[in-house]
Amino acid sequence: MSNEAYLGNPNLKKVNTPVEFTEEQIKEYQKCANDPIYFMTNYVRIVSLDEGLVPFNMYDFQKNIVQTIHDNRFTICKLPRQSGKSTTTISYLLHYALFNPNSNIAILANKSSTARDILGRLQLAYENLPKWMQQGIINWNKGNIELENKSTIVAAATSSSAIRGGSFNIIFLDEFAFVPANIAEMFFSSVYPTISSGKRTKMIIVSTPHGMNQYYKLWIDAINKRNDYVPIEVHWSEVPGRDEKWKEMTIRNTSEEQFQQEFECEFLGSVDTLISPAKIKNTPYADPLQSKNGLKMFTKPIKGNMYVCCVDVARGTNKDYSAFTIIDVTKDESRKVPYEVVCTYKNNEVKPFVFPNIITQTCKAYNEAHILTEVNDLGQSIAEAMHFELEYPNILMTTQRGRAGQILGAMFSGRGTSLGVRMTKQIKKVGCANFKTLMEGDKLKVNDFSIIEEISTFSRRGNSWMAEEGTNDDLVMCLVIFGWLSNQPYFKELSDSNIRNQMYMEQQNLIEQDMAPFGFVDDGINSDPMNEETVDEYGTRWFPAVRKGQ
């Protein structure tokens, strides 16, 4: 029998091992092939913390999960902690690999060690299958397995390069809510062609909530039928053994907030965020009309509308993004919200010498939007490039004015003139306060989900506000800049310019109508008396003097 074992493992069968099936085994094999739930309940064994290796006695909600995955291409599951979500999914993957020859399966998690651990549990279940049901083993290690029927299962960390170039029948994303936002976004942009290339390919996303992120967006869109994912939600009370007494004990040993997120499966942002959690949760977002290389357009430019662009320039680190937001500040009574984000840009690979061109080209499309750049670091050179090299006309400047600090406007007059705003503690404090007022007062429509994602982790750190460790706040800082800008007297005059011009013209018309019966008195400022015939108060006509030679 040892010569039939794979590399000396008596629980595994090597390739080309002959098997003589009994009639009963053939019937069982067919039953298992046709019914994954039957296969799991009768042949899959799992490790219990209390009892060791035991049969997988599935709960009703676990059977529902398996059936939903089996019947649909795209499935997203929102499940509480310790509900057997990974065990349920890998049991299905094991069934798929056994009974679907030439299938490729990927197990992806937020960490490669986690993915390998999940694969390890699948391997344990495989080792405890009867030999007549097993496929021979071609390759068997911690990162991947290959079976005699040419099915493969690989385990890796979720990243844009994890399965690039591969063709997969099933992709399983475990704890997707814990994947960093930038990686999650890049993953989907790179992996979607892989998924969509087949007609039967499956995507399985399983996680416990962890803030407002890509997983949150996918879930909300699935609930609202804005994507093709079938949502599955399980309440903690559906897990046998969990009741109100268990809930009280869990909260006592953890915290109310942790219980809400991990067991009630609530989407909570970070603690002590600038914007209130209730507002973050209820902030609507929209799909962009166009999206390319970090640039997203949500509303096309409208002729006659006024736009403002706020720019935050990356400091040169890999996790730091260059970003800008274009905001419609047109006074329009028909619009419910005074200010609306119509276009965003966020990219951590753009070169400093290219960034000014991207800003100006986009802003030109939006009626030559007024640009305000944060000029603490590289921002100074970006602003100078736009002003002096590209000769963009609408660069907003600031000037130092004593105790008032930086004020908007004044162009090159005054001391300490700058081609943008220098971010100080005071500027940031005012900007954050105004941004919070605009958001929570429904005065600013953000549209971009990336902004909501950043807001959910933009929280208090000491006496300031900033992104949590491992997250970024580049788009939020653009809106903090806008928050400061919106309270500047010069901006108010600028944004009211259309109204002011209209009021001036109306007033001018009224003056002209009042003066019409009496005529107008020519003050002679714009006339040349040497070249015109005139009449004095006595009726004497005076003619231009004609000099010799003329």
Report on the structure:
With 550 residues, the protein is an alpha/beta fold. It folds into two domains: 255 residues, P-loop containing nucleotide triphosphate hydrolases (Rossmann fold, 3-Layer(aba) Sandwich); 218 residues, Nucleotidyltransferase, domain 5, CATH 3.30.420. It has 17 helices and 25 strands. It has an eight-stranded mixed β-sheet with strand order 7-8-9-6-10-11-5-12, sandwiched between helices. Helix 1 packs across helix 2 and helix 13 crosses helix 15.
Summarize the model shown.
The chain has 550 residues and is an alpha/beta fold.
Low-confidence residue ranges: 498-503, 517-530
CATH superfamily of the largest domain: P-loop containing nucleotide triphosphate hydrolases
Radius of gyration: 34 Å
Number of helices: 17
Q: Class by helix and strand content?
A: alpha/beta
Shape: elongated
Number of domains: 2
Helix content: 25-40%
> Ends: how far apart?
128 Å
> What is the average of the pLDDT values?
85
CATH architecture of the largest domain: 3-Layer(aba) Sandwich
